[in-house]
Amino acid sequence: MQGQRIPIGEVTLNVVIQGEGEPVLLAHGFPLDHSMWEAQINVLAAEGYQVIAPDLRGFGKSDPAKDKTTMSQFADDLSRLLAKLNVTKPVTFCGLSMGGYIAWQFFLRHRARLARLILCDTRANDDDENVARGRLVMAAEVERFGLEKAPGTMLPKLLGPVTLEKNEAVVEALRATILRQDPAGVAAAQRGMAERQNVVDVLPTIDVPTLLICGDADAITPPEVMQEMAAAIPGAEYAEIAHAGHMAPMERAVETNTAMLDFLKST
Ligand code: MLT
Q1: Percent of the chain with pLDDT over 70
Q2: What would the mean pLDDT of 28-43 be, rounded to a whole number?
Q3: Which one of 69, 70, 71, 98 would you pick to mutate in the ligand 1 pocket, going by the greatest count of ligand atoms within 8 A of its CB?
Q4: Do the beta carbons of residue 41 and residue 256 sit within 8 Å?
Q5: Which of 83, 192, 209, 214 could form a disulfide with 267, with the two C-beta atoms 3.0–4.6 Å apart?
Q6: How high is the ipTM of this complex?
Q7: Which positions carry the signal peptide feature in this UniProt record (predicted)?
Q8: pLDDT digit string (tens) for 137-146?
Q9: How far apart are CA 212 and CA 117, in angstroms?
Q10: Closest ligand 1 atom, CA of 30?
Q11: For 55-69, what is each residue's pLDDT tens digit?
Q12: Is 29 in the pocket of ligand 1 (CB under 6 A)?
């Protein structure tokens, strides 16, 4: 899908905008770009929403990132993007995994811009020392050697077994998305995720309607983790998507879209 280049100050973001109506902002996961939401963009636009799907700083066709991009910087970029687009109505912020880490910061820093949260396959805790160290190693490696080896290690973790076995189109789309990312942007986001805030204590203070979506075979943020988060957020709804891994919106688009639309229409 063709995006528009929108300058937001320090950087210019590539953004796909479709439809008219209540705004829904889609924040992609790592190390991906807006294309992971391809199966959501047209459907939500056709249902009467204004869908805003940016490539985050350092990803897709947006400007490159330097050294480290924190989750707060990503959240501030998105707030600036909404201001630039004159979106004054509070948005539904839908983030997957890293997009979810950004959603927490958007709630903490830009609450006035937020109407609802949809959190897909994500977590609220920060990294333990080992995981954080692993991210720094990966960041240095991709800067040195590029992303060629990344799909081999990442695809089996990102996708559920049913998708890996039976849905070549999704496997290949995800592989191509990872391979076209800029190593510098990927490294910068890894460094930012390694030092992200633990927001477990924030969950009980969330005061917007919230939906959590999780693939039943998500190996990175498993259903137990997301169910626990749903229990901690007042009034939160939880939808589990059968036969999907960490990339539920790509792996089971119809079921994910139904969960999103049911929530959007009922809250
Ligand atoms: C993602 O899908 O965005 C990643 O799994 C996030 C992470 O590496 O923690």
Answers
A1: 100
A2: 98
A3: 98
A4: no
A5: 209
A6: 0.96
A7: none
A8: 999 999 999 9
A9: 8
A10: 3
A11: 999 999 999 999 999
A12: yes
Question: Right CATH number for 4-266 from 3.90.470.20, 3.90.950.20, 2.40.70.10, 3.40.50.1820?
Answer: 3.40.50.1820
% of the chain with per-residue pLDDT over 90: 99
What is the spatial distance between Cα 66 and Cα 211, in angstroms, rounded to a whole number? 33
The 10 Å Cβ neighbour count of residue 232 is 16
Establish how many alpha carbons lie within 13 A of residue 193's alpha carbon, considering only the half-sphere containing its beta carbon.
27
Closest residue CA from atom 4 of ligand 1: 30
- Residue 1 pLDDT class (50, 70, 90 cuts): confident
Cβ 30 under 6 angstroms from ligand 1: yes
Asked if pLDDT for residue 83 goes beyond 90, the answer is: yes
Asked if residue 220 has its Cβ within 6 Å of ligand 1, the reply is yes
Atom of ligand 1 nearest to the CA of 220: 5
